[in-house]
Amino acid sequence: MNEQPARIHPTADVAASAVIGPGTSVWNQAQVRDGARIGSNCVLGKNAYVDAGVQMGDRVKIQNNVSVYQGVTIEDGVFVGPHVCFTNDKVPRAINRDGSAKTDADWEVSPTLVRRGAALGANSTILPGVSIGRWAMVGSGSVVTRDVLDYELVVGNPARRIGTACPCGEPLRDADDGSPFEGDCPRCGDRMPPTGEAGL
Question: Would you give the end-to-end CA distance of the chain in angstroms?
């Protein structure tokens, strides 16, 4: 079977050193910078920004106006909703104490990892240095300040656990006493939490 080449809109700005996998679509006004690696069959929406050196797996969906900054790694099958913003500097400043402009030598990138199958809701903000687990779900507008576990459902500012996210997408609320959800998903029937990894 022949793979389709990447589709890059004429208004997109893709650096010559960026690697774009087969079947991936890069839509209008999107920018992909030097050394970024984007896998196959991905979608980068309008006005998406992918910074230098970002690593992205296969079948990732990046919606409109998302900012993915240097130091971020996104594994296969991740959904990143509209206007999600990743950050990469724990102590951001524009200038030094003496008023001189900050340079690349004046700051340190804090790596961020989004694991396979996770979903990040619209307008969520991901602070530097966190890891978001497999099939986890971050609610719209949330601010993620700490690691999110596999299958965990988090919401709010700062984001806090409220339940489990089934791989089918169904949010499964924790019990009133705070104990984690355990049982069959009412949408797909899968047992949660799962005993094995579900296929993508």
Answer: 20
